[in-house]
Amino acid sequence: MALHYAVRDDMKRVWFLCFMIGILSMVLLPILGSAQGTGLEIQSVNAQLLKTRSPVGTTVIHEYQIIAVLYNNDTATSENITVKFLDPEVNNTLNLFPLNATLGPKETKVFTSATWPTALSGPITLNVSFAPRSLEVVLTPKNSGYYHYTLNIPSTQKKTSTPGFEIVLVLCAVALFLLLQRKKQ
Q1: Residue 162 falls inside a structural domain
Q2: Domain presence at residue 103
Q3: Is the same domain home to 42 and 116?
Q4: Are 81 and 70 in contact (CB under 8 A)?
Q5: pTM here?
Q6: Residue 174 resides in a domain
Q7: CB-facing half-sphere around the CA of 89: CA atoms within 13 A
């Protein structure tokens, strides 16, 4: 009978040990898994004004270069990463260079656009995103993401007419009409 109770106590200890290992694994595994890093992230986005073109009518074109800094906060290398920028004026995606980048662990890389001309003014939201270039790679929060940057473009529309010139022109036309009417009489 004493042997039966000893086996039962041993079984209780085994079940208690299994229970404690399960609890500890549920608590510790997420913590240990997060030590690997969060993957890729955009550290900053900036738009640098390169030049302002002379106005065509009332439209002023500003030329910018978009600069994005991408950081690999993981212990694994991220390969064939592409950074893109959505042009809000024409709803078209533009690639930032380099087109295919490989970022090693804890590495930072700068991506730049070619010249981006725009006639927009005011606060403009620029959407910059990154993802693996290959369409066969599954997108995850570690290898893809986006960043919103607000660019404030000052309104610099030039006026093409002199204010008040129209009134002077109308008064001169009326005076000429009255003068011609007097000569006829």
Answers
A1: no
A2: yes
A3: yes
A4: yes
A5: 0.64
A6: no
A7: 11
